[in-house]
Design brief:
Radius of gyration: 22 Å
Number of strands: 18
Shape: elongated
Strand content: 25-35%
Largest sheet: 7 strands, mixed
Structural class: alpha+beta
Order of helices and strands: HEEEHEEEHEEEHEEHEEHEHEEEE
């Protein structure tokens, strides 16, 4: 099940005022899919900026146009890299690397998903872009398949990573399993099945905010933020980044500090208080 059907099912079950997901999952993929309800949808951009951990398996000897089993086979061979060959290329994929996403990715091009354009027969051009891979380890190798675990930053495409690993060892490979075990602050151990009991497992917004530093402000500053005003204060000279802005022990907003200025990025209370 892909991300869109999950959202549709939860709309039916929960009937929220707003709903959104933080990070697309391919139909092939399983694992963690954070869903935000109501005001929590304002947190989605900040959840999506977090690290993600994937377990994935490459089957050697075949290549498809989508780099996974959902695509059409375009090549095959009898090359099966050994464990030592695979291990020798992994270090080149750790750090900031350039990656060219598949034309069958969810990347938007002029407002449309790349996979929609590709499946309609249009020519899709995607430029390489930098992405961050924090860690990449080999989990298991049986000759025909190899399993890995990767900790990656925002915008990393695992199917493309698998394609590039295969290319580096001079082989063909396709993703046959893709499982997300962590997405930002959410871990697979917190995940629940999509069933009628899902309403009992809704988490408070604080589960996301606990991972952000807190910034306490006066009620006057809080009111100004609520109205979208920026706050300049020399007290912010040594601060930068995203903060959960609190006033009188209540969440007011998410704010970003840049060059002594606090910018409101997401407001969680009404102007009426």
């Amino acid at each position: 099940m892909g991300s869109t059907p999950v959202v549709g099912r939860l709309k039916y079950l929960l009937k929220p005022s707003k709903i959104g997901h933080a990070g697309t999952l391919d139909p092939l993929a399983t694992g963690v899919l954070p869903i935000a309800l109501g005001k929590a949808t304002r947190l989605i951009p900040f959840v999506m900026d977090g690290k993600k951990i994937y377990e994935f398996t490459i089957r050697w000897g075949v290549q498809t146009d989508s780099d996974d089993l959902a695509g059409h086979e375009i090549a095959h061979d009898d090359i099966r890299p050994n464990k030592e060959q695979i291990l020798s290329v992994l270090p080149k994929f750790i750090g900031t690397i350039m990656q060219k996403p598949s034309i069958y990715s969810a990347l938007k091009i002029n407002g449309q998903r790349a996979y929609d354009l590709a499946r309609s027969g249009q020519d899709v051009q995607i430029q390489p872009r930098p992405t961050k891979i924090y860690d990449l380890k080999l989990l298991n190798h049986d000759g025909e398949t190899t399993s890995f675990v990767a900790e990656v930053g925002k915008g990393t495409y695992i199917r493309t990573l698998a394609h590039d690993i295969a290319e580096s060892v001079g082989a063909l490979g396709v993703v046959v399993r893709l499982h997300r075990t962590k997405d930002g602050p959410f871990d697979i151990n917190q995940a629940v099945d999509l069933d009628d009991n899902v309403a009992k497992n809704i988490l408070p917004m604080e589960n996301v905010l606990d991972n952000l530093p807190k910034l306490n402000v006066s009620s006057d500053v809080a009111k100004r933020l609520i109205y979208g005003q920026r706050i300049k204060d020399d007290a912010y000279a040594d601060l930068s980044g995203i903060y959960a802005v609190m006033s009188e022990n209540h969440l007011v907003a998410l704010g970003e500090i840049e060059k002594n200025v606090l910018h409101p990025r997401a407001i969680f209370v009404s102007k009426e208080g």
